[in-house]
Amino acid sequence: MTGPQLRLEGVSAGYGRTTVLRDIDLEIPAASVVALLGSNGAGKTTLLRVASGLMRPSVGHVLVDDQDVTHEAPSERRRHGVCLIPEGRGIFRSLTVRENLLLQIPPWEKDTSLDPALEMFPALRTRLGDLAGRLSGGQQQMVALSRAFFGSPSLVLLDEVSMGLAPIVVDTIFEALHVLAARGTALLIVEQYVSRALAVADHVYLIGHGSIIFQGSSASLDQAAVMRHYLSHDLAAGQPAAGHPAVDRGPT
Ligand SMILES: Nc1ncnc2c1ncn2[C@@H]1O[C@H](COP(=O)(O)OP(=O)(O)OP(=O)(O)O)[C@@H](O)[C@H]1O
């Protein structure tokens, strides 16, 4: 049996003297979709930074496909199949769409065809010569997401990829996530649209004040209870709010 695609073991991390993540244990089984939910400032982006190699944990280990990659840079983790789609799109606005897409193809990839991205996002075909900064927000996000369609990553980390987009564009973005999931790509999704995230996810982790406070299968999760947790101080305190037995208690 294949081991988890990603495992965080006892991870703590922060900025300077400020600890943001505390003793995080998280696992993404191969070919599964995991949603990481939590209120603003809970530590979701920081967790994705640690998983992608942009930040080193102060304590704990990061394993990708059972290999310890804690001290590996993002480019080395990409070789292990880890692909980060960062918050804020991370594209080069002053380069053309074609140049952006070419830069997303990993250096070891022999095939430099743009087709894997253009088949998913045909709207980009007529914009290849345009500066990325001139695209609509939705098309810029398509350029950003294209990275996940080059080099066959085994794990894609997605930070708020639907942020600020019109609902029809959000549909296209989620369609792309469904395509990746159907191919067996493991996904870790940080997403403001809780119901959309739960619709694609197999498993959910809730993070509050830098700690995992609940985890469970998305099928067993009561969305209303999740929203109550978002809004409730119980989330911060790590105490389950009354009357939501459908939310599983985490293992910690
Ligand atoms: N570069 C940084 N330097 C210092 N503190 C930071 C930095 N980035 C984030 N923080 C702090 O770390 C904490 C967690 O931030 P993080 O961005 O990981 O949370 P988040 O759950 O992704 O929030 P949001 O949903 O608002 O993006 C916050 O208190 C934030 O202010």
TrEMBL record:
SUPFAM superfamilies reported in the protein's UniProt record: P-loop containing nucleoside triphosphate hydrolases
UniProt superkingdom: Bacteria
Alphabetized InterPro entries for the sequence: AAA+_ATPase, ABC_transporter-like_ATP-bd, ABC_transporter-like_CS, BCAA_Transport_ATP-bd_LivF, P-loop_NTPase
MF terms (GO), sorted A to Z: ATP binding
Domain annotation ABC transporter: ranges: 6-234
Keyword field: Amino-acid transport, ATP-binding, Nucleotide-binding, Transport
UniProt family annotation: Belongs to the ABC transporter superfamily.
Protein name (Swiss-Prot/TrEMBL): ABC transporter ATP-binding protein
